[in-house]
Design goal:
InterPro entries: ACT-like_dom_sf, ACT_dom, UPF0735_ACT_dom-cont. Belongs to the UPF0735 family. This protein is an alpha+beta fold and about 150 residues long. It folds into 2 domains: about 50 residues, no CATH class; about 80 residues, ACT domain (Alpha-Beta Plaits, 2-Layer Sandwich). Helix content is about 35%, strand content about 25%. It contains 6 helices and 4 strands; from the N terminus they run ααααβαββαβ. β2 and β3 form a beta hairpin.
Amino acid sequence: MMERDGGTHYIVNEKALPIVLLKTVEAKELLKKGEVVTIHEAVDRVGMSRSAYYKYKDYIFPLYEMNKGKIITMHLILKHLPGILSEVLNQIAESEASVLTINQSIPAHGIANISVALETRQMTINIEELILKMEQIKGVQKINILAQE
């Protein structure tokens, strides 16, 4: 069995996380937004122990915090419609992410596969918000994060 050094990161849907990890994120958000002043207030409000908070606080972050200043590679599946890629790129530009590379397959059966590498350092919104905005574009079928550096 291979030993883990603790440096591996995973993207996990919140539905699969234990409640203590979700409460840790919630407590951190309360502190960050200034809704509470102390850790004691934050953990009381979310209903967790201070020891659990301290145990996990340095190991759980929303995706947008982990991705700030990183290179993100996304895979998009788009319907083959005029202007759809342009709309996606406009959303990226509005977020002030920097497109490092973009690759598009030749559309087959009305579908185009796109991979885009973005540098997120200057983004004005988090990556989750950008994905939500891109998913609202007519013809965007699916968006996946493939990698982050």
